[in-house]
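Sample intake sheet
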Amino acid sequence: MANLPENLNEVVERALELSRSVPGFLGDREARFLALLAACTPADGAIVEIGSYKAKSTLLLASVAARYGLSPVVAIDPHTGPSITDPQVAGASSFEEFVTGIRAARLENHVEIRRALSRDAAKGWSRPIRLLWIDGDHTYQGTSEDFALFSPFLSNGAIVAMHDALHAYEGPLRVFVEQVLRSDRFGPAGFVQSMAWAQFRPDDGAKFREERERLARRAARLIPFLKDSRPLHGLTKMRYKLARSRVPRAPISAVDWFSLVSTKPAL
């Protein structure tokens, strides 16, 4: 793929409209960027979502997949609580609302539901992945396991994205810094709001090492604040926010992002 997809702005806005119709924890700027990843990632394979809750990001991804004829979004979530990310859902299941949202949007044919823990959904997995969206267990152990189980299936040029990497959870940020930014298997990388993203480039990732390491040095300063994702208070919270302000995380335009990740010259 050498050019941006047709009618990208229209498709993204429609996806955002659907996403806003259900509750969740994905901000508009993050949602817009996630839709861009789904539409423009220059790789083949499935879109895999780990952590679906009530379908906010699922609807976004499935809407894009439906418009561009991509394979169904694989939505992995046991739909049980509580979790470190969502302690308010203790004892509750989000599954009924998840299914209701998908049906209301008429996207049933564009979502492959896996009501299971990610480690169970990974058993027997063999399909290539073009976009791996990790938004499940935010502990270091949980995020690391999700990444270890599914990253071996990333296609050349695929994107891995992690939610809440800049929202005071240890798992997403530490895994992103230690296993993505400091790996020559990955090329262009960055943050948009709290989302972290990187492109899988096993053949030429080394040429992006300097840029990745520069970003890693800034982001790594946050990790000591996040031991076991304990809540931050007082002066510690202020110091964390100051360190976070030094991590580039502004939104990026579709044209600029695509120029970073495109592996083919524009026509």
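Comment: The domain at 23-260 is CATH 3.40.50.150 (Rossmann fold). The radius of gyration is 17 Å.
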